[in-house]
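Rather than argue in generalities, we have chosen a single entry, letters for residues, whole numbers for local backbone shapes, without further comment.
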Amino acid sequence: MNHEPTDRASLRQKLSRLLILWWRRHLRDVDRDVTRRRVFEEGGLSYSYIFLVFLSCAIATLGLLLNSVAVIIGAMLIAPLMGPIVLLGFAIAETDVLRAIRSGKAIVAGVLGALVISAVIVKLSPYISPTPEIMARTNPNLFDLLVAVCSGMVAGYAVMRQQIGAVAGVAIATALMPPLATAGYGLAAADMQVFSGSFFLFLTNMLAIAFSVAGMAIWYGFGNLQAPRELLWKTLAAGAVLALLSVPLVDTLNESVSKSLALKRATDVLREDMVARGMRMDKLQVNYADNGNVLVGAVALVPKYDEGAPDRMQAALRQALGKPVHFQLDQVVIGSAEQAAQKPSVIANPVTPLPVQPPPLTETQLIEQYLRQVFPLPISMSEIDSVRKSATLQLADSYAGNLQTLYNAERDLQSKFPGWEMRLVPPLRGLPVVNFDSGEAELDPVSLDKLRTVQWALQRWGLKRVDVVGYASLGEKGRASAGLASKRAEIVAAWLVEAGFETEKTVIYPAPGQKDEERERGQAAFRRTQILPNFPVDH
């Protein structure tokens, strides 16, 4: 006779009884009356609640404007919004309308108060364009929802078990106050994209935490488990709300993933083309337009201008990405080592190695010895004329320093040998960028030093024409930001014209992919003017 089915049924019954006994002992540790009273007291509207909302929002707003993570974390820790949201979760679990109304009043008052105080601080402060910390809270995705769900479960458990430290961790993980402060910034700056994205992040976190707390409350016996239908409709309602929230979040996540894949494919395609033609990629940004087209912007360092490169690369990008592509290529002509060696105006009569017999002039001997043993820079070619008392040194392409270092090195050589004309010819590379303070278009001493370095490098390369490109960070001066970029280009161009150069001014505002790049590098990266050497094509 086969007793196997009977044995299995008996084993399942024993396991079920053991689990039930274990869970009942687990529930005995939770004092439901004390938990309900504490949640009810901490989740209502009070003077201390409003006071902490105002202070935490003020700190969060200042932290966002200062782009300070430490200040923002401090605002998260003192924000009292978790109390009403936990109460809302308990109200959902127990279908308690009075508790839901109490929590709703506190949440609405907190949200309105945070938006008002944040908008007031932004209005009273000097205009500051969106910082990376602000932009980081405008594009929520599915991962943010999952973080909120897990954090809500931890919050529910911490309330049941009185784990105060865990609640602080949840406050940091879900970041309820910074999105509200960001929404206030969006209102004050009339930027609906910032407002809508950040407020949706707050709404997502709030509802996900509330439903997760409700689930934990039901799990710990606070819900009405005697009515299966009631439990069923609560579960379905929570699932429906979270599903509706997930739709735009999934779209945002898919867009982020698509952008990352497109960036990788574009990088591979462009690098393959550039390497084959002696070019070098300097920058690359990939974005998506509202119509779904891919926007690709690249900066390439090239030995000579390639007129067919934009069309050729755009066709390759369309084939690789499988979508319409709008491609913009900026070519910075920096020449090559071979071309530099063919410039008689810069380098003549290369001597390698230096003469074995010392020249008759002791001073020349000292210069040669200094260059061989003391001077630390790699020299590819040299011309030392003892009659004219001049020394011209061509730096090798392996030189890893910047132009400012070479400029200072030439002046140091000149001071050591005042009777000689010392000339260092730098390898062909990008010129220093002239930076500006926020909202300013004036040249400070640091900028003037950079321009003198630019003047020296252009003279050593024998160039007379340059392109001057002005930039500004997004919203740096409100609607006048494009004009600010133009002023920056004009003041640098005027200085170069006075120094004897021909200039062509260009303004790029906003630049392709500027929003994403500012989020990664900060606004200061675009408070600049760029000077591009214009090498003749026949060189």
Notes: The radius of gyration is 33 Å. Strands lie at 280-288, 294-302, 325-333, 379-385, 390-395, 421-425, 434-435, 465-470, 502-507, 528-533. Residues 55 and 109 are 14 Å apart (CA to CA).
